[in-house]
Amino acid sequence: MEKQDIIAENKKRIAQQSKPYNPISGEGSTSIKRRKVHIAEFPLDAMYLPVDMLQDNSIMQLVEHGATGYLQRQGIDDIQERHILELWIGFCRKRLRYDFEYWARSCATISDKGKGRDTPFKLNRAQRQYLEALEKLRMTGRPIDIILCKARQWGGSTLTQLYMLWIQLIHKHNWNSVICGDIEKQSSIVAGMLSKVINRYPSWATEGKKLTTTPFQGTRNTRVINLGNSRYSLGSSQKPDSLRSEDISMAHLTEVGLWKATAGRKPEDLVQSIFGSIASGPYTVKIMESTAKGVGNFFHRTWVDATHGRNNFTPVFIPWYAIELYSKQLSDNDYSPFIDSMNDYEKQLFTLGATLESIAWYREKRLEIADEWRLFSEFPSTAAEAFQSTGRRIFRIQYVNNIRKTCVPPAFKGDIDGNKFIQAGPGENCNENALCIWLMPDNEQHMRNRYIVTVDVGGVSDKSDYSCIVVADRIAMLNGGVPEIVACWHGHIEHDKLAWKAVEIARAYDEALLVIEANTLETEGTEGDNFEYILNEIAGSYSNLYCRTSQLEIKQGRPRRWGFHTNPSTKPMVINFLIKALRDELYIERCIETTYELDMYELKENGKEMGAIEGNHDDRVMATAILVWACYNVALPTMINTNRRKNSQTKIVSEASL
Q: Which CATH class is domain 404-653?
């Protein structure tokens, strides 16, 4: 864009953001469809009412005849001022049902953060953007299932909790809710906010009745709202037993990205136990929200699945520049020199929708936070930025995001036993020690090295590194295409069983070239010093095992060394090749978990070593790096004319054959 075009567009955005917003009149509200009306004799000269409210017969008559005309049609001849006032209050009570923003401003009192005072709840710009997603689901009769990835300090949790309270007070009776944070302090803050709203709830909205709460059956963390008989329970992920998850219709899980796995319980187990108690339907609520805290965790996995339509959650992301606080005033004279000084990233921010004033604020914030990845985590411009885990990442985020586009759920989950694929049954755990298959073996025509199988060797105990077996199909390379990931096994297993399982998979995939990373146990002497013996044993029964000893060395009488040896020379070699493969799209990835590991793979602080960030694993990365390197450094597949016995074909044993 030319400079003058940028300035003109910026002024247009400022004007749009500066439009009047009045939740009492409804002016400026965009969360639901509204229509401007005038009702004679009412205090407000003009109102922008929800269109579904205007379908109510009494409201239609009020709009058509005005307050006096409406009362006359009701048989009241001697109309006094009190009659108009009573009609107005009844109208306002009815409006509470249709208009959340009006309810929030009229009935909810909250603490004004940072100002030390209480104030009516008037939604800010970011909250109104979030409310659009909530109301769209409610108005269409769908379950209000949302996963919210957010920047800091705009009140997403406050809106979520008060929206649920609105449903309990206005729309539903016996409509119980659960609020669960990472720690008890978060739940205590929520409890204080709800108490303030309830204690200061206006009597006109309840026809003079006092709104109160009482402990439910003497419990400390569950309270019953007297009007409507709904209750809300407070708890934390660290003390889940305090939650009453039976007979609930709404759940708000906050800062899920911080939830940590504990002995015998993972975050997904707690989420499932809470959400599983909700019978989804209109006005049911399941909301998970958090600032992003890295990739590969439960919150991130759920977010990715939501963005790909693989679950029922609507993904909502609020960027930092949608938040009113994050802006610095610029004059007209400042615009030209500021635009001249913008770097490429700042220009990208403007393309995304940020104003020059917001970008000016962001520039100063970058000076405060030295680590760019921390800045992205706290003040993300996109969801991809929000989920960054490290500032020393090896694989560029745009490369990983691009390769992630081809990832899909596997067509088969289960395991292999000899020459049979055993499909997992309903309800079986397929996340551990499982074989995932995207494309079954194509063994109609025998080709040498069409398939390549690589193995990254991990440990045996649950706390050690995982082992990983990955399979690639290279048939497309014969016509200028690229290899494709077709299968992956991942889990903890004894090393001899791992090696023979890799042989079974390689045999199933047309006697594939089997490349086993051998140095882990050869050099470290951990968890099984006999691994080299195992490879020699395999070589005696499987003819297509990768050998790193050259033909010349073998002719000179040197012993064959089986497997791929990862060392300070070969590890950078395969990792750098994988970087190139991601950049140039030299292979097709199918496994979404591999992309998570790519996001968490970093250069260590010493500037020499590479690996997963602390507490995570890189077994899929290493297996894939060796695999992609092998795909381009082994001769292309060649046809072998041989009669293959039909009974040697690998079979699928399941309720339904793929």
A: alpha beta
Give the span between the Cα atoms of 456 and 520, in whole angstroms.
Answer: 9
- Kindly tell me if the per-residue pLDDT of 471 is higher than 90: yes
- Check if the beta carbon of residue 354 is closer than 8 Å to that of residue 346: no
Q: Is the CATH number 3.40.50.300 carried by domain 99-318?
A: yes
591 touches 471 (CB < 8 A): no
Of 110, 171, 126, the residue nearest 144 (C-alpha)? 171
For 159-284, list the strands marked E by DSSP: 177-181, 213-215, 222-225, 231-236, 250-254
Q: Where are the alpha helices (DSSP H) in 510-615?
A: 519-524, 531-539, 551-555, 570-584, 592-599
Is the per-residue pLDDT at 251 higher than 80? yes
Is the pLDDT confidence value at 528 over 70? Answer: no
Say how far residue 460 (Cα) sits from the centre of its chain: 30
Nearest Cα to Cα of residue 53 among 11, 100, 14 = 100
Q: How far apart are CA 433 and CA 496, in angstroms?
A: 15
> Hey, CA dihedral for 295, 301, 306, 307, is it positive or negative?
positive
Q: By the 8 A CB rule, do 388 and 599 touch?
A: yes
Is pLDDT above 50 for 657? Answer: no
Residue 539 to residue 351: CA distance in whole angstroms: 58
pLDDT in tens, 99-157: 999 999 999 999 876 666 889 999 999 999 999 999 999 999 999 999 999 887 789 99
Which of these, 301, 277, 318, 9, lies nearest to 154 by C-alpha position?
A: 318
pTM confidence score: 0.72
Residues 371-397: pLDDT tens digits? 777 788 788 888 878 877 666 788 888
**Phi, psi (deg, nearest 5) at residue 156:** -65, -40
Provide CATH 3.30.420.240 ranges for the chain: 404-653
Alpha helix ranges (H) inside 99-183 = 100-107, 125-139, 156-166
Alpha helix (H) ranges present in 18-152?
Answer: 57-73, 81-98, 100-107, 125-139
The single-letter code of the amino acid at 445 is: Q
CA distance 147 to 573: 40
